[in-house]
Design brief:
- By secondary structure, the protein is an alpha/beta fold.
- About 35% of the residues lie in helices and about 20% in strands.
- It has 17 helices and 17 strands.
- A 6-stranded mixed β-sheet has the order 8-6-9-13-16-17, with helices on both faces. Strands 3-2-1-4-5 form a 5-stranded mixed β-sheet.
- Strand 14 and strand 15 form a beta hairpin.
- The longest helix has 17 residues.
- It is globular.
Length: about 425
């Protein structure tokens, strides 16, 4: 078991690097104070920097999932300059342009792409600094996400959500049922990468990326149509897949929204429980996930028609957390709201936490509903820069965002995706 202290982190920093651990604490009944702990390799101890009170920033970021508000957050001339100054204003005087900033978010930072906030009228923060988002600054010591050894990949795209029960059974029989836990039934009004329809862009995206990988001597397996079922993903557990790419619909529910649905009552009944879920809080890891082949059967309320043992195509974060993906260097979630979840003092309880628990090193995910065409461009450009031109993943991601921004200037198209080590 690693015993990692701030001194351990300091010893792993170079002279042009800084580690920042954001944290928040209640100071009054109606107020939360945000601060940062800043550490350099020559620091005697971490320096605490006071940032802002949450109530002073909320008016600028409320309803941030709406495109208009999202654009204002990341627009220098709208709310961007104010938000950037509140978050970064007291920190940047201590950092030189071009330096690497390792940062671990806290609270509302989990739902903001603070690395994409505007630095000035023409540049965003990641244009000026090498910003590396971490699940914890201990990742600097573990250094698990920096391997350049990628030899295997699994990709999903062009998934058939309207697969029949018969076809689902045929595909399901290709996998052992011993370790597959079925969970069924969710409704489609909050499942989004547009709607719960076929996504042609994901097929083109996956096929082009698959070709790039193969052309660069990476063994890749592409799952499309009916083959892209939930069983195939769960079968990756304890397999040596360095890259996992999933182009699909994603979903994330708040507790109050989830309680209005039939999903949990039905799920409890189908795994042998007689009573409906009555707890005060529904497990956040059961309130978000990804869609695979045949998902529309469950979404239409007909999950009981599925053959015994066949997965319903609704893969929850809870299910992912039980898998062994320790050989996965990077998981790319090309879907909506895959970075969202229940924000607590211990971080975000959502897909990112589930993938980290499963052992994934790096995750690319989104904070809000994403446009299909813009996402396809972002993903292809990322792999082009990363695999073909051999940039590191952070450089490749920043370059991909710039490419999308040039074609789709509004932040709603390019700022939503984040990279987490």
């Amino acid at each position: 078991m690693w015993k990692i202290t701030w001194d351990s982190v300091k010893n792993h920093l170079s002279s042009n690097e800084v580690a920042i651990e954001f944290f928040s604490a209640p100071i009054n009944k109606d107020s939360t104070l945000y601060c940062a702990l800043l550490l350099r390799n020559n620091s005697q101890y971490p320096e605490m920097i006071t940032l802002f009170e949450e109530k002073d920033i909320l008016p600028y970021i409320s309803s941030k999932t709406e495109a208009n508000t999202t654009n204002k957050i990341y627009d220098f001339y709208a709310n961007g300059e104010v938000i950037k100054n509140k978050i970064w204003g007291n920190i940047l005087p201590k950092i030189k342009e071009g330096e690497t900033i390792y940062f671990s978010p806290s609270g509302l930072f989990h739902q903001l792409a603070i690395e994409s906030l505007p630095y000035d009228e023409n540049r965003k923060m990641s244009d000026v600094y090498n910003l590396v988002r971490l699940s914890s600054t201990r990742e600097i010591v573990l250094n698990r996400g920096n391997s350049n050894q990628y030899s295997t990949a699994t990709l999903y795209g062009g998934i058939h959500y309207d697969t029949s029960s018969k076809d689902l059974l045929a595909e399901s029989n290709n996998y052992s049922q011993e370790t597959l836990l079925a969970s069924r039934g969710v409704e489609n009004d909050t499942l989004d990468r547009g709607s719960v329809n076929y996504l042609p862009g994901t097929k083109q995206e996956a096929e082009k990326i698959n070709k790039m990988l193969v052309d660069n001597n990476i063994t890749a397996q592409l799952y499309t149509k009916n083959q892209a079922n939930e069983e195939s993903f769960k079968n990756l557990s304890n397999k040596h897949q360095n890259i996992i790419h999933i182009g699909t619909h994603g979903f994330a529910w708040t507790d109050s929204v989830a309680k209005k649905k039939d999903y949990f009552a039905e799920r409890m009944q189908m795994i042998g429980e007689d009573q409906q879920y009555r707890g005060p809080i529904i497990d956040p890891l059961n309130r978000c996930g990804l869609l695979f082949a045949g998902a529309n059967i469950a979404l239409s309320g007909k999950s009981r028609e599925l053959p015994e043992g066949v997965q319903d195509g609704i893969l929850t974060a809870k299910e992912i957390s039980l898998l062994d993906l320790t050989h996965t260097q990077i998981a790319v979630l090309s879907a909506c709201e895959t970075g969202r979840g229940e924000v607590t003092a211990e971080g975000v309880f959502g897909l990112q936490r589930a993938l980290k628990q499963a052992g994934v090193n790096t995750i690319i995910m989104s904070l809000w509903p994403v446009d299909d065409a813009a996402t396809q461009l972002l993903m292809q450009e990322f792999y082009q820069q990363w695999i073909t031109t051999n940039k590191n993943k952070h450089q490749a991601f920043t370059k991909a965002q710039k490419t999308v921004k040039a074609k789709y200037p509004s932040p709603e198209y390019w700022a939503g995706f984040i990279l987490l080590d």
